[in-house]
Design goal:
The chain is an alpha+beta fold. It has 17 helices and 12 strands. Helix 13 crosses helix 17. The termini are far apart. It binds protoporphyrin IX containing FE. Protoporphyrin IX containing FE binds next to helix 13 and helix 17. It holds the Pfam family p450.
């Protein structure tokens, strides 16, 4: 988001266009109606507003602004108005009391594609399409009954992961890659009834499916000039819209033939509804079109894999860095009552310290530091200020979960703070909303949490974790990288040494 860096990186044509439209834009902004009573804002430059002050770590720069300009502030990103809520009270206004008015999305250009936007769960406004998709997801994927039905698939995929690690004795493993593949295959089995990526095939990645999904996320996280200056939107100067659509189409093409094949089986007289055992079957039976199925599957992969992988990676890093916490969670999962070979989902409720570690990880490293961008559907009053229609709205959960007024010693990893505490991430405690709250809250929470718990418990139970080159875990680099999700900047690479059964307490 650093305009200067942006201009340096792009060619002269862009610069020429920028300067030619400069005067026109200046006139437009100068004579446009000024909105009174906006939330406080840092001083802005003409045309670019605060763009030059955002940098490549917006969660940090915007949090620093909030310290000066308060829990509800506004920033100008070019001609786009951004309103940021940075306290539990302002978050509650946006996500609870005025949830209806703020439940629309600000859609980044990668996803603002007329051919797919009408079918989107993540980027649609809360219209009938969105309601239907949320209902399908709840019924078929995330309800207690659906979660129970799919528990065997999740356990199987994690067994594959553990088997893979046992065969990798002494070798350095990028745990992010491995967890990503495991989650990807879990979702693939639930949606399409088959794996798409071979765990051993670390580099081939099923002809690029994984790469294409990662590219979609990459395009989605790129700051787009057209978002800040909508008059340039149609030109797609950085090629973000075009590039994003190309990747989305590549992803669709991977399973298109499966949809066709299944559709013809389901249409035949030999088909009986008892045979429907994947999400694909259910969607076809319920009359979903190919493009609707393509879009929903892609969004489930995009929303479900990176978020969960990143949470596991951060939890591993924090536990390695905090030996005491690791040994406490280790003695919990090494209890005699736990099945040594395979921890099952039914055993997870017996691991309160592990749950506390996961909450603490999500507090310090929320995968979406601003949630996904919301948009004001109409002009609203919040805390006595005016938030105009179509303003982009961020809830800065990164700032809230590091606020010393709310959390004791907020920068330290202390899972104990959650033991015996009623504070939970289910959208009722506005000081801690890593999954959001209100109608746009993450529908995948049950799957995300179960997966993180089961993967971590299994990795702790099965292996000792050692850093390559004898690196000291207390010195682990915890820098983050801002994108669609807040990732660890350096991938988490570990040697997994199988534990001996005799260690069981
Ligand atoms: C640890 C794991 C996860 C975290 C931390 C997480 C977090 C979030 C957050 C912060 C949002 C935005 C809420 C808002 O804008 O108010 C969200 C939305 C969403 N998440 Fe998750 N998520 C996780 C796992 C998953 C999984 C496993 C899936 C599905 C397979 C999923 C599917 C979605 C979808 C579809 C949305 C958009 C909902 C809407 O706009 O109505 N998430 N998630």
């Amino acid at each position: 988001m650093d305009l200067i860096a942006f201009l340096k990186e792009n060619d002269m044509l862009l610069f020429f266009l920028f300067t030619s439209f400069f005067a026109l834009l200046f006139i437009k902004l100068t004579f446009s109606k000024t909105i009174k009573n906006l939330p406080p804002s840092p001083p802005t430059l003409p045309i670019i507003g605060n763009l030059h002050q955002i940098g490549d770590k917006p969660h940090i720069s915007i949090t620093n602004f909030a310290k000066e300009y308060g829990p509800l502030m506004s920033l100008r990103l070019g001609s786009q108005l951004l309103v940021v809520a940075s306290s539990p009270e302002t978050a509650m206004e946006i996500l609870k009391f005025q949830d209806r008015s703020f439940s629309s999305r600000f859609v980044p250009s990668t996803f603002r594609q007329s051919s797919i936007l009408p079918y989107s769960l993540i980027w649609s406004d809360c219209d009938q399409t969105w309601r239907t998709l949320r209902t399908v997801c709840r019924t078929e994927l995330f309800s207690p009954k659906a979660m129970e039905t799919h528990s065997r698939v999740r356990e199987e995929k994690i067994s594959d992961m553990l088997e893979f690690l046992r065969n990798k004795q002494g070798e350095v493993v990028d745990i992010g890659e491995l967890v990503f593949t495991t989650l990807f295959n879990t979702l693939s089995c639930i949606i399409f009834g088959q794996d798409f990526i071979d765990l051993k095939d670390e580099h081939e990645t099923h002809g690029g499916l994984k790469d294409s999904l990662e590219n979609i996320l990459e395009y989605g996280g790129k700051p787009d000039f057209g978002d800040f200056f909508p008059m340039f939107q149609r030109l797609d100067l950085q090629g973000i819209k075009k590039g994003g659509l190309k990747q989305i189409k590549i992803v669709f093409s991977f399973w298109e033939h499966m949809i066709k094949e299944r559709r013809s089986q389901i249409g035949s007289s030999a088909w009986s509804s008892d045979q429907a055992n994947t999400l694909l079957d259910r969607l076809i039976e319920q009359g979903f079109s190919d493009v609707q199925i393509n879009q929903l599957a892609t969004e489930l992969y995009v929303a479900g894999t990176d978020t969960t992988t990143s949470t596991v990676g951060w939890a591993i890093a924090e536990l390695l860095k905090h030996k005491e916490a690791l040994s406490k969670v280790e003695s919990e999962v090494m209890k005699k009552e736990m099945n040594f070979d395979k921890i099952t989902e039914s055993q997870l409720s017996e691991l309160p310290y592990l749950h506390a570690c996961i909450k603490e990880t999500l507090r310090i490293h929320p995968t979406g530091p601003f949630l996904l961008p919301h948009r004001a559907q109409e002009t609203c009053e919040v805390m006595g200020y005016t938030v105009p229609k179509d303003a982009q709205v961020f809830v800065n959960i990164w700032a809230i979960s590091r606020d010393p007024k709310i959390w004791d010693d907020p920068l330290s990893f202390k899972p104990e703070r959650f033991l015996g505490s009623k504070v939970d991430f289910r959208g009722q405690n506005f000081e801690f909303t890593p999954f959001g709250a209100g109608r746009r809250m993450c529908p995948g929470l049950p799957l995300g949490v179960k997966s993180v718990e089961l993967i971590l418990a299994s990795l702790i139970r099965g292996f000792d974790w050692v850093l390559p080159n004898g690196d000291d875990p207390s010195q682990l680099d915890m820098n983050d990288k801002f994108g669609v999700t807040l990732q660890k900047e350096k991938p988490m690479k570990i040697i997994f040494k199988p534990k001996q059964q005799s260690l069981v307490a």
